[in-house]
Amino acid sequence: MKNRINQFLQERGITAYRFIEDTGISTTTGYELARNPDHLPSIRVLEQICDTYRKPPEFFIEWVPK
Question: End-to-end alpha-carbon separation of the chain, Å?
């Protein structure tokens, strides 16, 4: 699995800083998610992101076969 946070942010013109401010997640977690597609959010963080942007988890996480 990989996170698609950076792609989501780029498509919408949202900075990593704004993402962190919007969602209320920690700065470290927010920047790690925005920069590293291998970093997966916890369920709690994923829920905050989904609630903030009113999108289902598949907008932010994708399954990648090995």
Answer: 9
pLDDT tens, position by position, 21-47:
999 999 999 999 999 999 999 999 999
**In this structure, which amino acid lies at residue 4?**
R
Q: 33 with 8: CB under 8 angstroms?
A: no
pLDDT for res 66:
81
Q: Would the pTM of this model clear 0.85, i.e. be above it?
A: yes
The SS3 call for residue 38 is coil
* Token representation of residue 33: 């998610």
Other beta carbons within 10 Å of 18: 13
Q: How many residues does the chain have?
A: 66
Query: How far is 51 from 66, CA to CA, in rounded Å?
Result: 30
